[in-house]
Amino acid sequence: MELKEQIQNLAQAYFEEIRAIRRHLHQNPELSFQEFNTSNYIASILEKEGIEYERNWVKTGIVATIMGQKPSGKITAIRADIDALPIQETNEVPYKSCNDGVMHACGHDVHTASALGAALILNDLRDEWAGTIKFVFQPAEEKLPGGASLMIKEGLFERHKMQSIFGQHVQHDLPEGKVGFRPGKYMASCDEIYLTVKGKGGHGALPHNLVDPVMITAQILVALQQVVSRQAKPLTPTVLSFGRIEANGATNIIPDKVELQGTFRTYDEEWRDQAHLKITEIATGIAQSFGGNCEVDIRKGYPFVFNDEDLTEKAISWAKDYMGAENVVDLEMRPTGEDFSFYGHHIPATFYRLGVANFEKNITSSIHTSTFDIDEKALVTGAGLMAFLALKKLDS
């Protein structure tokens, strides 16, 4: 029997176990940098299977290793993020979150269960392949500075000489049984912007005696959009959005300050740095011109996700071989962020999408919502394809 068929059969055979892992994780979510019970649970499964692992990467991260029985110096890796989001789940399912205000609303339970499933499969087949596969169970994808960047700082690539890495992410509007890829630039860098516009508050009926930070804020918001429409190159996708404005005045009270929170996203590191300067210059300049001032705090987040063209083109071909060309789709660029990007700026990386939707069962809710869920049959594809891609990479 071909190795592909062995993987497909094992993915089916392990489905109930992989689903049980996903449900346990979903019921017991933990926030970024707090994934202690999650880490213990992952370690217990690895230990039961006799898979070598290291703990305490950024306190809760784990790196596991499976070596094929045939000699080879090739090393590839599979990454899964393990943290959850501060969202109250509203799904009424048997595996609903037991932790109040915390939910796996971004599918990290799926990513971790798939990676553990791939480990089960590859461990069973280790007599059949050559090389080494690392499993990176990474904390804190959802919170700056990102668990990936911290694991790298702690020496991930020095201690584990991985030469390539694969990661997957659920896609809520892609049907179960399908996956998607995009070579090259895929997801955007993401930075957090905090502005504090200060003036002189007072009675709303006496604006001539004041320095109105609300009106200054309005001018700044409108002017900053020119960073996108007139400063960015037309062929460089750029997003600048503000989602929170706090003035804390009243109908007849002008406050002393206004606080804003926003995000900046793009796909070019040089332009990213230039844009930060433009945002600062515009915001501070406008505030000063009206007699106020603006404090600017730009917190640099994740870089853009870059899928190595050669590795990703091969992964597309391998995925078509594994699941049929009709089940592998092309993805568009998307301006969401992902800390998997840090890996791809060090070694060849491929980050692809796993379809989890079932339109007949109305399983279509977006990620980061209280009703997000998956068609659990996607776990068969999630675990099997991960294992197949890793082995094809070692064999290529």
What does the model show?
The chain is of the alpha/beta class. The chain folds into two domains: 3-187 and 304-395, Aminopeptidase (3-Layer(aba) Sandwich); 189-302, Alpha-Beta Plaits. It has helices at 3-13, 15-27, 36-48, 108-124, 147-153, 156-159, 213-231, 269-289, 309-323, 341-344, 378-395; strands at residues 52-57, 61-67, 70-81, 130-138, 165-175, 179-181, 184-187, 189-198, 202-203, 238-246, 253-254, 257-266, 293-302, 305-307, 328-330, 349-357. The strands form four sheets. It has an eight-stranded mixed sheet, with helices on both faces. The radius of gyration is 24 Å and the shape is elongated.
Reported CATH architecture of the largest domain: 3-Layer(aba) Sandwich
Class based on secondary structure composition and strand pairing = alpha/beta
Percent range for β-strand residues: 25-35%
Number of structural units classed as domains: 2
Terminus-to-terminus distance: 20 Å
Helix content: 25-40%
By DSSP (H or I, 4+ residues per run), the number of helices equals: 11
Order of helices and strands: HHHEEEHEHHEEEEEHEEEHEEHEHEH
* Strand order within the widest beta sheet: 1-2-4-3-5-16-6-15
Instruction: Specify the biggest β-sheet.
Output: 8 strands, mixed
User: Rg to the nearest angstrom?
Assistant: 24 Å
Query: Under CATH, the topology of the largest domain is which?
Result: Aminopeptidase
**Mean pLDDT level:** 97
